Amino acid sequence: MTILSIRNLCVSYGAIQAIRDVSLDVRKGEIVTLIGANGAGKTTLLRTISGLLKPARGEISFLDRQIAGIAPHRIVMMGLSHSPEGRQVFANLTVRENLLLGAYQQTDRQQIAARMERVFELFPVLDKRRHQPSGTLSGGEQQMLAIGRALMAKPSLLLLDEPSLGLAPIIVRKIFQIIRQINEEGVTILLVEQNAHMALQIADRGYVLQTGQIILQDSASNLLNSPQVKAAYLGSEASEESEG
């Protein structure tokens, strides 16, 4: 079952075309990764899917419903959550308050409490810091909070934008282990990630985005072994991971 289908999507910033005729699919239960260099359009694509940007043309179908141009809060209500690049936690609010914001459209207090406890099970350090202002957390802890906040909406599809950005390798490995665990518990994931080696290790399939266009798509294992992908995206990362 295809949970997300994008066809001939174009997104522009004024005269600059950031996304050009992109088509991709994400099937239920998959981890699909989107890799590419800085400025390739990866974040723009996720922001368009989640309703933060309006496409110039093209179709975005989520659970067989057209969502291009729909307000972001309505898309969240349909079961699509977005953990943004740069974490974007509310620094003056506590960990618990940030998590509650992720469930702001929910009304069942018991379900909200149960989801929060599940987030604390996935990220025990957040449990210890639940009453701490989020701005005092480390970068890795803020990333965990951003993912946890997105999970509070109980998504069927989770968009993750650069979860490893700026983090130490040991924290990156932990984050990716938890991403895999979230997926195994039934959440489909579309992952944007500069660390192509780590992303392809946990993904089922991948797309390579270059200057706003999909230039390659395949299974994650085939992309890991592709000379083209190795030359452009994997060299130093692969060797660093093997050393670690």
Description:
There is one protein chain. The chain has 10 helices and 10 strands. It is of the alpha/beta class and 244 residues long. Helix 3 packs parallel to helix 6. The radius of gyration is 17 Å and the shape is globular. The protein starts with a strand and ends with a helix. The C terminus is likely disordered.
Topology:
Layout: E1 2-13, E2 16-27, E3 31-35, H1 42-49, E4 57-62, E5 65-66, H2 72-78, E6 80-83, H3 95-102, H4 109-122, H5 124-128, H6 139-151, E7 157-161, H7 169-184, E8 188-192, H8 196-202, E9 205-210, E10 213-219, H9 220-224, H10 227-243
Helix pairs in contact: 3-6
Short structural description:
By secondary structure, the protein is of the alpha/beta class.
Q: What characteristics describe this protein?
A:
six-stranded mixed beta sheet, four-stranded antiparallel beta sheet, 244 residues, 10 helices, 10 strands, disordered C terminus, alpha/beta, globular
